[in-house]
Amino acid sequence: MAKQVEEKVPTFDRLMNPVIEALKVLGGSGTIEEINNQVAEIVGLTDEQLEVLHNSEKGGQTEVEYRLAWTRTYLKKYGVLENSSRGVWALTSKGRQLDKVNPKIVVRQVRDQDKKAPHDPQETDKLAETAAELTWREELMAALLKMDPASFERLVQRLLRESGFIQVEVTGRSGDGGIDGKGIMRLAGLLSFHVIFQCKRYQGSVSASQVRDFRGAMVGRADKGLLITTGNFTKDATREATRDGAPAIDLIDGDLLVDKLKELGLGVQTRKVQIEQVSIDQDWFTSL
User: Fold this and answer.
1) Residue 56, Cβ neighbours under 10 Å: how many?
2) Whole-prediction pTM value?
3) Which of the four, 32, 99, 127, 156, has the lowest number of CB atoms within 10 Å?
């Protein structure tokens, strides 16, 4: 059944024009999360499609997220997109001037470029960087899913402390509405917000009913709620979290969680690798 749903997920080339459209809707730039959410709306992806995991054994990244990563890579190599070191993607001047691309032409030109310059260090680095990005995310997610619930709660406690929370306590116990802990977020030393958090360490998707249950448990006990999962959230769950007239709940899915762990250096070490590039100045030799 999962395989049948996976086959219904649009291929990376069919997602090219939705990505361009999504960025235009977002004003020309956006984070990966913003782009992915907008693409899901444009394409009309169902929760069932959005919940298909790329690797069911390792969990974490969904098939849609995996394919969109390659979509962005191809569009970048085609000159339509660019990205910053802060994870923000944007349309280039070429991208802003067009409404659509022909996916077949994009794929053919990008692959032709790779064939003509297979040893180009810059091009090789770009593909290696994309592959490495997908690999370390899967490896980190596999490690998170192997943790027992108590260890995962302590990890979240550490993450919140490193992010500026104070008085962070793990209070999870049965009959407490699924609340796993609480803390206080201080802004600029002037404002304080009491936050209650819930941790869900599993591969599935958090539903709207689970968000509502968590809200019911936090009302009257905190200013904000924080729901953290190694999985993802259904579209209805995302809408429920920010529903008008109800206390807002902030959501952290598996992708954002691994990003924060990397950013804070919690169990993740990054090392800059420098590659020496040598170029020959032919004119210098002929001028002697």
Assistant:
1) 11
2) 0.63
3) 99
